[in-house]
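Risk register update: the risk of archive-format incompatibility is retired. Evidence:
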Amino acid sequence: MDLSGLTTVIAELKDHVLTITLDRPDRLNSFTNTMRREFFDLWAYAREEADVHVIVLRANGERAFSTGADVKEGTFLSENVFSRRDPGIDLSPKHNGCWKPLICAVHGMAAGGALYWLNEADIIIASEDAQFFDPHVSYGMVAALEPIGLAHRIPIGEVLRMVLLGLDERMSAKRALEIGFISEIVTRAELWPRAQELAERIAAKPAAAIQGSVRAIWESKNTGRTAALATGMYYTDIGNPLGRAEVVRSEVATREYQVR
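Archived output:
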């Protein structure tokens, strides 16, 4: 994939970290059909590219991480109701089989469709000015898809409050930290460096062990405890030999470098 050919985001792969920057600040980084297609391709690239160990998602502009779908341009839905699919699936790494860890660095407004990314993030950090809300009901629209995903990671009462109050209330970064939606608050100046620091620490670990852990934990949310443990054991049997082999290769490479 030619990362330089993207038009709605900026993507750079360096030291096993794929950094994706939403780049439509004039439209508050809202997503379009083009952005959906580019993310669909990016998840496929990240999924298959062995050099990608971790993904960081952040956003350009001062006001927003993302305000969801671009209301001016709209987004494609099939006229055939039986062929319709959730448009946000293209934005979602786990729905696209990408089990590389995703770190989201959120500033400003994160609204509506932005939750497609946050719902499937492995780590979310935010700057002090971050605000989370879902405006659907204020516009007379059913809020279902994004909140259902959100209900799998924060208390349902918090989800319903966000949904029902719509534009009348925004969840602060402080509250998001209190309920476990985000794991850390930093200053705006520290946001991007901190996300990169976390990514680099994860990227330095055996990729097979990381991916197997991410997949086992996420898939456990869709099954009962017994089935989840059985699947987890299966991933352990597969992943541990691969992860240990990566450790050995790393140690050998380090010794060879020291000899030179």
